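Subject: design request, 483 residues
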């Protein structure tokens, strides 16, 4: 519990009403308000939190943080031109600035965030540290798994989770930092010790509208790092150096192809892993593909920056398995190989397909099952289909969280990227389970089926309802029934 005055020390607000009142909690959801709460009203893309102020007051809110002053005189009003940022700063103060009591590393980029953050969590935990993880797949506090609903939680929930990590005695936290979170000030007030950039490609233009705006959101994360922090960027990405242009943090780079502070080279690879040379070390890792070589190198460099012995880093990383839904290797009883991967951007899909093609003998079929999410970036749909056709022998276009859009309309958008000469290799099957069954029917021993787009997700979102769906389970169970 804090007084409102204590929370206001972190922000500049126009205050109407008393500040010598106790605040028992904070929330952006009026349904969660309890007596003594501070309710934060922000304008979202779908709804405006200001319309829920009466409900928040009815539920016991004693103060309102908002951008537009409401017509209420019997409650304390805090008016801010940027209520999102103010909420982050006040949430940090409410929970006693937990990020200052942890070594906090944030990973941003289009692809690789989950893998890098998870690798670091597993690495540091294996080395005997108590750690926290905030990721798309799950949030973890010293081994306790907490379901994740967003890549980066809202600022109040975020500080609450960090405070729980501190209470559990955690020394480190590794978290994904999405472009939405940066733009929406969800990380305002957090004290990062390390910022990591993986890469940036075409994605989220439904939200940011232009690539330059998307790039600017990523760069802001590094611009805001404190001088005592470190910034690590992918030197091979053409925008990697852009991230470091204005940062005050100490700068580091990693790369497979350019000269960098941390370098690696792929010696050999197969579906079971790859032999990498990192610095002076050669070691076999259980992750597959060039994109994972970058992820491993980013994790290695981050641990080195945090002062971990390099021999310990290498030895421990070699024992860490792939992250769930990230190039997850499966095999049916009759010898068909399945690869389940979260790839849901053109670049990520290209990386996975190129990795498979670099490993396979070409005497087998590569069948790719892929879709695109509804109510999201339309521009990538034809590109995803084009990439699939270029790199695969057969392609099945299917549903991937159609949300409130027609699956047929989404597949029609994707088909505009298919060249006439590729029409014969493409099937359209709306039902994702049926698409997987069809691929297994078409496959022979040794053939490879890539199921792209959902990875770790355990649902299909259709018309606002999340229906249970697991690519790994559907593939495995269907294969067993067909055997």
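Subject: RE: design request

Done. Sequence follows.
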């Amino acid at each position: 519990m804090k007084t409102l005055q204590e929370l206001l020390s972190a922000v500049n607000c126009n205050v109407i009403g008393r500040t010598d009142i106790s605040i028992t909690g904070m929330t952006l959801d009026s349904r969660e308000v309890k007596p003594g709460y501070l309710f934060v009203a922000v304008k979202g893309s779908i709804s405006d939190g200001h319309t829920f102020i009466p409900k928040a007051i009815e539920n016991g809110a004693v103060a309102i943080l908002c951008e537009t002053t409401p017509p209420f005189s019997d409650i304390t009003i805090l008016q801010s031109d940027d209520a999102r940022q103010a909420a982050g700063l006040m949430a940090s103060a409410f929970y006693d600035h937990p990020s200052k009591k942890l070594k906090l590393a944030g990973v941003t980029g289009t692809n690789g965030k989950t893998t890098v953050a998870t690798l670091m969590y597993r690495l540091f935990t294996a080395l005997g540290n108590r750690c926290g993880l905030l990721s798309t797949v799950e949030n973890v506090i010293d081994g306790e798994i907490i379901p994740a609903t967003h890549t980066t939680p809202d600022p109040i929930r975020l500080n609450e989770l960090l405070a729980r990590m501190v209470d559990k005695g955690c020394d480190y936290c590794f978290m994904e930092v999405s472009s939405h979170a940066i733009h929406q000030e969800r990380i305002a007030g957090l004290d990062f010790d390390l910022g990591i950039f993986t890469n940036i490609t075409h994605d989220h233009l439904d939200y940011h509208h232009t690539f330059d705006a998307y790039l600017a959101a990523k760069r802001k994360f590094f611009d805001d790092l404190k001088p005592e922090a470190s910034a690590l960027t992918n030197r091979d990405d053409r925008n990697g150096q852009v991230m470091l242009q204005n940062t005050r943090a100490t700068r580091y780079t990693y790369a497979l192809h350019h000269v960098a502070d941390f370098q690696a080279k792929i010696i050999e690879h197969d579906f079971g892993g790859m032999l990498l040379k990192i610095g002076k070390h050669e070691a076999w890792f259980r992750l597959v593909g060039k994109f994972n070589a970058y992820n491993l190198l980013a994790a290695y460099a981050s641990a080195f920056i945090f002062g971990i012995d390099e021999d310990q880093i290498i030895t421990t990383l070699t024992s860490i398995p792939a992250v769930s839904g990230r190039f997850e290797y499966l095999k049916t009883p009759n010898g068909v190989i399945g690869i389940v991967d979260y790839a849901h951007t053109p670049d990520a899909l290209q990386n996975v397909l190129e990795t498979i093609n670099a490993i396979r003998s070409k005497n087998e079929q590569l069948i790719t099952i892929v879709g695109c999410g509804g109510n999201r970036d339309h521009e990538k749909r034809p590109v995803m289909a084009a990439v699939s056709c270029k790199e695969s022998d057969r392609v099945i276009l299917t549903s991937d969280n159609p949300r409130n859009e027609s699956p047929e309309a989404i597949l029609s958008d994707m088909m505009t990227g298919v060249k006439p000469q590729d029409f014969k290799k493409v099937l359209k099957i709306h039902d994702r389970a049926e698409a997987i069954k069809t691929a297994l029917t078409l496959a022979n021993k040794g053939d490879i089926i890539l199921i792209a787009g959902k990875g770790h997700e355990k649902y299909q979102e259709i018309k606002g309802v999340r229906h249970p769906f697991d690519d790994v389970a559907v593939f495995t169970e269907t294969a067993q029934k067909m055997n």
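The chain has a mean pLDDT of 94.
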